[in-house]
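Hi team,

Filling in the usual template for the complex we talked about on Friday. All components are listed, including any nucleic acid strands or ligand strings, so the model treats them as one assembly.

SUBMITTER: L.P.
PURPOSE: interface mapping
COMPONENTS: two
RESIDUES: 738
SEQUENCES:
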Amino acid sequence: MKLKSSKSKATKTAEAKKERLLALLKSHGSSIYSDLDKGKFPQFTIPSRSVSNIVYDKKLRQYILGKAAALRSARNMSQLRSFTQLSWLAFFVNRLIREGKSSTLRDIYYSSQAFAIDFEDQPESDNIIVDLEAILTHAREDLHIFPEERSSVFGDLTIEYTVPGYEGKRVNLSDHPDGYLIGPSLSSAEIVDTSAELVIAIEKGGLFTRFVEEKVHKKFKAIIVDTAGQAPRSTRYLLKRLNAEMGLPVVILADGDVYGEHIAMVIKSGSANAAHLRELTVPDAKWLGVWATDIEKYKLPTIPMTESDIKRIYELQKDPRYQEGNWKKQLEVFLKLKRKAELEAFSKYGLTNITDKYLPEKLEIAKSL
Amino acid sequence: MKLKSSKSKATKTAEAKKERLLALLKSHGSSIYSDLDKGKFPQFTIPSRSVSNIVYDKKLRQYILGKAAALRSARNMSQLRSFTQLSWLAFFVNRLIREGKSSTLRDIYYSSQAFAIDFEDQPESDNIIVDLEAILTHAREDLHIFPEERSSVFGDLTIEYTVPGYEGKRVNLSDHPDGYLIGPSLSSAEIVDTSAELVIAIEKGGLFTRFVEEKVHKKFKAIIVDTAGQAPRSTRYLLKRLNAEMGLPVVILADGDVYGEHIAMVIKSGSANAAHLRELTVPDAKWLGVWATDIEKYKLPTIPMTESDIKRIYELQKDPRYQEGNWKKQLEVFLKLKRKAELEAFSKYGLTNITDKYLPEKLEIAKSL
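RESULT (copied from the run log):
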């Protein structure tokens, strides 16, 4: 007779992940002890994150780190400080994971003071957190360090929590029409089921609400994600999971300006800052709009670009990801127009124009992208 | 035999509110028609929002408008533009309410273009929205115009939605530990039930998560609200309702600086900009901290104030609400210290110090405030 386990699949998956992370931290800790036992100075080897070691990988379609590595050795006086900070952070993160507690970048900075670990300022502790990410090749969210910014999600998506006190509990993210925050619990939850066939990421809360009101989730069988501007990492992580685990295509709607185009690009291929990670990109994500060419096509009300908008276009024109196709073309048209249009601009044609006309037209066009 | 109504109390309350608002709009519309029938130029009478007409009411403990009023008459060439804008807005809002659709300030600006109504820029349309609020003495949220910013709430609070498609549906806001967005659906929902005895408003998302993790909602029988900085109006409206409808005391935790003190003050007594409204204040709300005096008492890590921090203290010292008691005292101590401390600073004493020590101590002190 087979005994039925009282633990759900989600709980077991979460526990296995936790054990893997703890084992990884332990292996680094052990190597410090082992070095000390051998009379050697302990050290960390960190993939170099200097500009010269960040390259765009066309196959992976994201930035990756090259082979260069940096040492943080207890032997070197100038590295002793960062070696100690890194050792403390690994210790602290180990505790966060064991105790199932979450933290923020700011919080880590202050927490160090409880242990008399000296960080000059938060940028210094932030930098050490990225070092640890690079060493472990795990996003800081896996290490229970979450962003302060929160975006949200809505749609027929059933998740099962794995955070303490909520293990095994399931919710369907269509029960609260204002949306569910994408925080630590949602990020660490298992995705159980969905009837959706598409994920629509949209830049603005007001339009997220419009989409829910106009039942875009039903009409287009979609999960709707509010990125609230540049998508926070936990939001990109969720988009990645919906794409990779559930096989859902991801499309992106953002304001018709250079920042909107880059919001889409970062969801698709990440950022140079996160070249050491693989969990934050959705290479097949499609940017639906608002394109520069949509501004003329739909005769949208526009706003003149500022100097910094134009400067940003020139910057992105140097980025390897903007060297071809539609990404390149739209930057050129933006530069020619020197004007931008917001998603709300479609309200010129009525409140539901964006959901009734623009969205279906662009989804049709996206099929050939 | 008595037939049981198929509509819930919440649905009926919401419908009654909707009818009241539509009747109010209709009465203003009728007076325009009636003026026209009599051969008179139609006009709106708007309570004046000029600085000279805004007074602090010690009894109501908030700013209110005096008796001065302004006219927007179709007779006066210089008022014809704003008269027309206002008439259009009343028409448009009437449609939003009838159709159960929501909008944002930005969206209203663009929507006007669908009707060839001219607004120079968004500040002009924002201003007309406040005029309509003042005329109707209803917050723009009642008129289905919501802020873009969203904050969140968590705790044992059962609500019943009244928005289209969700009428009669209930949720308990403790099912999703990352928190529920306070958007149009939550703002318009009926509050059904709660076991909470207290509402804790906290300035930051990271600490909101910590409070949930440390089960503050259970230990202190509390509903926890993340204000995400200065509380958006829909958040202040929810705090007001939890206080007025459910009789729950409201306490506020914000960063230990002049902005934190003012976040608490605005939750308590509103702002001069909203002197025409009564739904956005919680006069009995208590500011728990972080006080300037807490910085020394708890030996918190601090950051030096900037020039603009100090300038802001001088500004608030002229505000009638900061002329006495603890509000006055703390401004003085901030000015003396010229340093500030964040809520996260308590992590110096361990991650749970803020929930295990600081919060209970301050709640005890609050009893005598």
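MY TAKE: The domain at 9-146 of chain B is CATH 1.10.10.10 (Arc Repressor Mutant, subunit A). The first helix of chain B runs from residue 9 to 37.

Thanks, L.
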